[in-house]
Amino acid sequence: MSNIQQAKDKLRKEISALKKKFTSDELYNRSQEVLSVLELTGIFQESKTIFIYNSLDDEVQTFDFIRKWSAGKDFYLPVIEKDEMVFRRCTTNTCFQQSAFGIMEPVGDNYTDYKKVDLIIIPGVAFDRKMNRMGRGKAYYDRFLPKLKAPRLGICFEFQLFDGIPADKNDVKMDYIVSENELIW
Ligand SMILES: Nc1nc2c(c(=O)[nH]1)N(C=O)[C@@H](CNc1ccc(C(=O)N[C@@H](CCC(=O)O)C(=O)O)cc1)CN2
Ligand SMILES: Nc1ncnc2c1ncn2[C@@H]1O[C@H](COP(=O)(O)OP(=O)(O)OP(=O)(O)O)[C@@H](O)[C@H]1O
Fold first, then answer.
1. Pairing between strand 49-51 and 119-122?
2. Could you give the angle at the alpha carbon of 56 between the alpha carbons of 119 and 158, nearest 5°?
3. CA–CA distance, 185 with 182 (Å, rounded to integer)
4. What does residue 71 show for φ and ψ, rounded to 5 degrees?
5. Cα end-to-end span (Å), the chain
6. 61-81 tens-digit pLDDT
7. For a pocket test of ligand 1, which of 18, 63, 98, 138 has the largest count of ligand atoms closer than 8 A to its C-beta?
8. Which transformation does this protein catalyse, written as a reaction (predicted)?
9. 46 C-alpha vs ligand 1 centroid, how far in Å?
10. CA 126–ligand 1 middle distance (angstroms)
11. What is the ipTM of this complex?
12. Helices and strands, counts by H and E, the chain
């Protein structure tokens, strides 16, 4: 394993320990703060077709947010299919199926009209103020993002945001990062 991969794994463990200090209620409340910053941004307000994610317990919680905005915006969620990430529509009628990672993935057709996407909202384990992002170590987003021209907006809790994190040439940079306390672009 390279030095960068080792440094990333170490940081993943550190973040995982930090997250354990918060109850799920605290993470839910912080999620609401992060999302209220997101709602203030022009890029979110102006976007209609949005790629987002269905959160795991330790990520910014998106479930209520998607429902709240689903009348005015079209949301799509990731599905892992043959080790590739694809996106499917999420409406109030969508059926979900639990993936191997424990994520609820929409059932239905894959959406491939990538040029219509206005914004992609991306989870991460850690981000830095130079716009680097580190994920869960499977490179799904790093492989997917070059297919899309839409602005990339990372969302995270403040304790996941650093001045610098380990990054290499494959890591795709964010255009915006939003936390409870910061909006970076
Ligand atoms: N909410 C959400 N959905 C997503 C992602 C994500 O990061 N968050 N993905 C972004 O890629 C894709 C799924 N990728 C995932 C990759 C790893 C793990 C995971 O739980 N990994 C374990 C460690 C597994 C291991 O032992 O290697 C972990 O992080 O604890 C989950 C999802 C698509 N959907
Ligand atoms: N675009 C790519 N194509 C092929 N392999 C890649 C690509 N990006 C990263 N990898 C490899 O995949 C492995 C995991 O990468 P890395 O730790 O950067 O993932 P990550 O940032 O956590 O993933 P993700 O973007 O899915 O959240 C590394 O071995 C890395 O070299």
1. parallel
2. 70
3. 10
4. -70, -35
5. 32
6. 999 999 999 999 999 999 999
7. 138
8. (6S)-5-formyl-5,6,7,8-tetrahydrofolate + ATP = (6R)-5,10-methenyltetrahydrofolate + ADP + phosphate
9. 29
10. 13
11. 0.92
12. 5, 12
